[in-house]
Design goal:
This protein is α/β, with parallel strands linked by helices. Helix 3 packs across helix 4 and helix 4 packs across helix 5. The chain has eleven helices and 14 strands. The strands form three sheets. The protein has a six-stranded mixed β-sheet, with helices on both faces. Strands 2-1-4-5 form a four-stranded antiparallel β-sheet, with helices on one face. A four-stranded antiparallel β-sheet has the order 12-13-11-14, with helices on both faces. Helix 6 links the parallel strand 7 and strand 8. The two termini are 33 Å apart. Bound molecules: adenosine-5'-diphosphate and magnesium ion. Magnesium ion (MG) binds next to helix 1.
């Protein structure tokens, strides 16, 4: 369905996408997970033909984006990070506009707009101006716009940022449902939970590179024996952190001073005994101690030493 081969992009002297490659089968749900500034939106723009790449190639259904951008655009529905709607037009008229842009006749566009509004849960608001909508509802119209021409591949760029929880859940369920009905999906986010929930395969992106790629299970298996112990304390002195780092079963310690917490990557769960002993020795008052389930946040920390939401 999609082959991305060694694409690169620079803005001036700054290279922000540094040779990204991956491919996606038809019907897959694929996640791009990475912190702000990782290069996700730039990558997406190149895949959709909205921005030329400096190197490599992107093929959608065997067709090169560089060679035939229009043909590729018809196969893709893209939900951009920034809302692109006419505020003074109704939800339905916005959708009809986008349908016509994608080559539907007026009659087809009207019929399809009704279907799509129903699908994104906005049938009752069809005639209302988009400017009266909440952020989450606007986002749902945007998703509808991307679905008007029944694309083979749906690409969503952080569709849940800054919206209410109800709309967020609605969007997640819509995407899940679309994928279960055969739509190929690329979902971009810096929220680990969303990508874990929706995507069968996940690429972790940082500083313009894919630093890991696989199923959630594959990725979590790369964690140091899968165990991270989180400690919250009244004070995390440098001495205490150094002592933790020196423990035999501890691989790395990532502190979060704002939270007064530290993530301790250990080689075995038994390390918890040594950690507790260490707190006693250093007169550290422990507020919470937790063995974390292996997750992608922990993997990101292990690979980069930073949190996804820094
Ligand atoms: N049009 C542009 N001109 C210059 N720099 C840009 C432009 N678009 C993005 N960047 C820079 O490229 C990097 C990656 O941005 P982006 O792809 O938007 O990341 P993400 O979507 O993962 O948050 C950032 O450092 C950003 O500031
Ligand atoms: Mg982005």
């Amino acid at each position: 369905m999609l082959v991305v081969h060694d694409i690169k992009k620079s803005f001036g002297k700054k290279e922000v996408v540094k040779g990204v490659s991956f491919s996606i089968e038809k019907g897959e749900s694929f996640g791009l997970l990475g912190p702000n500034g990782a290069g996700k939106s730039t990558t997406i723009s190149m895949i959709c033909g909205l921005m030329p790449y400096d190197n490599g190639d992107v093929q959608v259904g065997g067709i090169s984006v560089k060679a035939s951008p229009m043909e590729v655009k018809r196969k893709i529905g893209v939900v951009p990070q920034d809302i692109a709607l006419y505020p003074t037009m109704s939800a339905k008229d916005n959708l009809i506009f986008w349908g016509k842009m994608y080559g539907l006749s007026g009659k087809e566009a009207k019929r399809r707009a009704d279907e799509v509004l129903d699908y994104v849960g906005l049938k009752e608001r069809a005639k209302d101006k988009v400017e009266t909508f909440s952020g989450g509802m606007k986002r749902r119209v945007n998703i509808g716009a991307a679905l008007m021409h029944k694309p083979e591949l749906l690409i969503m760029d952080e569709p849940t940022v800054g919206i209410d929880p109800q709309s967020r859940n609605h969007i997640l369920e819509t995407v899940k449902n679309l994928n279960e009905n055969g739509m190929t999906v690329i979902y971009t986010s810096h929220y680990m939970e969303e990508v874990e929930y929706l995507c069968k395969r996940i690429a972790i992106v940082d500083h313009g590179k894919l630093i890991a790629l696989g199923t959630k299970t594959d990725l979590c298996n790369r964690l140091a024996n899968g165990t991270v112990i989180k400690i919250k304390a009244s004070k995390l002195s440098g001495d205490f952190v150094s002592a933790l780092k020196a423990l035999e079963k501890v691989e790395r310690v990532v502190t979060n001073p704002e939270e007064g917490s530290a993530d301790i990557f250990v080689t075995e769960e038994k390390a918890i005994g040594d950690i507790v002993a260490c707190t006693v020795q250093h007169h550290v008052q422990v507020l919470a101690l937790e063995v974390k389930e292996p997750n992608l946040e922990a993997l990101f920390l292990q690979l980069t030493g930073r949190s996804l939401r820094d």
